Structures are given as structure tokens and as C-alpha cells.
Amino acid sequence: MQFGAYTFVETRRDPLTGEPVDVDKSFADVLEQIELADRVGLDVFGLGEHHRPDYAVSAPAVALAAAAARTRRIRLTSAVTVLSSDDPVRVYQQFATLDLLSGGRAEIMAGRGSFIESFPLFGYNLEDYDELFAEKLDLLLAIRARPKAVWKGRHRPPLNSQGVYPRALQEPLPVWIASGGTPQSVVRAGMLGLPLAIAIIGGEPARFAPLAELYREAGRRAGVAPDALAIGINGHGFLADTTEAAIDAFFPPYAEVMSRVGRERGWPPLTRAIFDQGRGPAVI
Amino acid sequence: MQFGAYTFVETRRDPLTGEPVDVDKSFADVLEQIELADRVGLDVFGLGEHHRPDYAVSAPAVALAAAAARTRRIRLTSAVTVLSSDDPVRVYQQFATLDLLSGGRAEIMAGRGSFIESFPLFGYNLEDYDELFAEKLDLLLAIRARPKAVWKGRHRPPLNSQGVYPRALQEPLPVWIASGGTPQSVVRAGMLGLPLAIAIIGGEPARFAPLAELYREAGRRAGVAPDALAIGINGHGFLADTTEAAIDAFFPPYAEVMSRVGRERGWPPLTRAIFDQGRGPAVI
Known about the structure:
homodimer, 2 domains, two-stranded antiparallel ribbon, 9 helices, disordered C terminus
């Protein structure tokens, strides 16, 4: 079992314009946190890609490279890379560079995206939501396997053995499938023999157990070696001296964020009563 | 006058396969060099984007972010970013992140590309060589000016006020035009009031003086304030105790590289006789 932390680097926003302020301080804080995580022995730290004023990280590999220079052993991952709306060639190049800079500590968590801003921003159609991910993951794995891949798809110009450099130090560079818990993503990860990171943002963890079985079953059917499979859970966490102190400190800002995000997604506001029942908003 | 250094991070290659080896050591070396440059007072350090096994940097902002974490005051730039074959939204996001991580020390040198591997790699047509650059520069400057730009072009999906985050700390994030010395690029930089970096890879520096005049004249005609204009020179340099010692140490590896690159470009081999006359290969 490994233990880590991740963040999207939340930003404070100007109440008048809604634009983020003091984002450089948010980055300085998170670098200090990653340095501490490395020192106290956490296994991994992740930064998640977003394209909205709420969060400062849209280029995870760039921010992780600064963390690489300030740490010695902690693994550094995106949590997640929105692969559907990115170019797998660039993603591989950036994380291979991070891997070389960090002495082989880079990982990619590839996801379809929970927020959807990146689709119009980079000119993709949400109707292609799943096809985009499947195709780009296929390309990413092809590039990871060899410097000069041959590949053809609908959503990215073909590769005809053009070289992709630099090459990662780790062979292979770890690529996880990050999923909000849809059976489709879980089966895909199992069939491809890729490690699976499930985001449990709300809902009881026990509800996700059948997905773990589905993942292992998909791997078995595809003939994947069992030890190639691994499951990670990305969830919210907060520590304090007592449960009550943790809840009292955590609930108000958590409710503010989840209610703000929930307004875009049609969730009901998060009340203390719902929170105390251990039920967050709907699973995304 | 400011003084700096740049590198593409040359790689050693396996003599049998031609693939790069020990690239992590090349990165470790260059980080040490940038740290030293910072300590001894150089003003700027640049890393150049390439997509070939000879050079390790294809993602300059990622490598520069590691350098940012190890330095205090030196400015960090791409030298160059091949803007023609990249997405200005991603380029802005990566360098804005670098700017935030470095306390406002990021710069972009945008160029059309000297090597041409990136065009087929990212699905662009070399026939659009100049149009691609003009269009993408226009978009980069629009994004730099405001978070929610409205923009339409031929080579990238339109922007309809989607937000581009995070925002750089510097306002504006410095964008230089990097040119191999074509009058077209020089005039473009002058008209837009952008600083100009001229690469003098071969040939006598005096031959480039008319370009400086052309740049200033283009700025004057466009009504640009003279102090908005600045000229940088990117060239090869090598220091030793005496001129003779410098030439003896520098010439053999320099000739090897220039002859290798020259074979792809139809240059004659670089001989010591030509070198001693102060004439390198043709201007690119």
C-alpha cells in the first residue's frame, strides 16, 4: 500500500472580477507542501489539470518539474491529465522530461476530464468524449512503447515513424487510468493492464468495491498478469486531533466548494445533515 | 546590455542505434550550469525546443521550471519555442506557470523553427510555414493581453472568450521574436513592437547590422515607442585563456556538429580554413 496526496492548487479570487489573485503564492505554498510530503515519507504527490479560474494548474508537468528539483524520492504525478483534449505527443514529451529531471519519479494519470472547459478551449466536441480518450490513450501507449510509432486516428494527425523525444528514464513511464467510477473506464484499464485510479469525491467507498472486482475480471479475461493490476483511490481527506475537530474545521470550506461546483452540475447544496450521513454529492 | 547563455541540451547517442543515452545526466548537468549562471550573475538562460534525438529539450517550460526552483534571479526563456507547430494556448499556460513558479522570471522566444521535424510530428504543412507563425503569434499576443480572448484563424480552433489560466505574474509576459535573420521576421517584430532575438549561427556579425536598422525603421513606421524595441543576439560562444586555446578546443566538436547538421541542409563541410576566416556555414 502506498500513500500520497494531490491538489488542483485552488486559487483565491477577486470578489469583484472573479479573476484569481496571488496565484504565485498558491504555487509557492504547494511547492512547500510537496517538499514536506517528500521529507515525511509520502509515496506520491499529484497535481491536477484544470482550465478555470478556480484552480491554478493547467500545465501539471511544468509545476511538477519545480517540485522535482526540490524533492528526492517522492513520485510525481498528474491527477489528472485531461488526455482527451491534449496531444499525447506533447504529454509524453513533458512527462518524459519530468521523468529525466526527477531521476525516474514521473507518472501520468490519464483521464477523460470531469470538468469540461478543456473541450471548447482546445476545439474538441463533447460528443466525442469517449472516442477521444480511447484514441489518445492508444497513441500515448504507442509512443511510450517506442520512439518511432506508426499510428492513425480520427482526432490527431497520423504518426509515420516520426521520432518522439526525449525518451523517459523509466521503461515504461507509468500511465494510470483515472476514472470517476464509470464501468467503461474501469473495464478499459483492466483490459489494457493499466493501473486504475478511482476518484471517490462523494458517496460511500463501499459502493465502489464492485468496480474493483470488475477491473480485475476485465484483466483476467484479457489475459493480463494479476500483478500488472493496481488500484488507487483519490479522495478528499482532512486530519485533525479529533473527528469532531476535523469535521468542524473541514465542513464550511468543503461545503462552499462542493456547492459552487454543484451549481454547475445540478447537485443539491451540501448541507451539514447530508455531510454527517457520510453522503457527499452524486458520484461524477 | 544584458548577458546570458542558451543551450539545446545536446545528447550523446548510442553509436549502434543512434538513440540518445544518459539524457538524465545531460539534464542534471544543464541544471547545474543554470544554477552557476544564476550565482555568477548572468541575466538570462535559455533552453531551445527540438524534436530530434540530438537534443534533449522538446518541452522547454518543463525543464525551465526545474531550473526556476534552483535559482533566484536569472531570467528563464525558451530559445526558441517553435510556435508555428504548437498551440499558443498551451504555450501561454506553460510559460505563465513558469512565471508564477519563478517569481516573474519567465520569457518566451517565439520562432518559426529552424529544424523542421516538428511540422510533420504535429501535423502541420511546411507550405504554411510563415502563415502558421503569423497566426499563432497573433493568438499568443491576444491571450497574453486578456484571459478571455476572442480569436479566429485557419490553423487552430477559434476562441470565443474561453478563459486561459493561470495568468502570468508579469504583465505582460515577455514575448520575443526569434529570427534567423530573414527581413520578414525582423520587420514583423518591429511593427508589433516586440523585442527581437537574432540568431547569428554563422557569418560575420557585421552583416546583420542592416537588419537592426530595418527593425527600428519598421517600428518607427508602425508608431512604436523606440524604448519598446530591443535587440538580442543568439550566437555560439566559447571561452578559454587565449584565443588560440579557445579555437583548438572548440573547433573539432563544433565542426562535427555543423557538418552533421550541414549535411541535412546542403552546406559544405566546415573546414578549419573556412573557420579561421571567420566564416561559418550559410545563414539559416
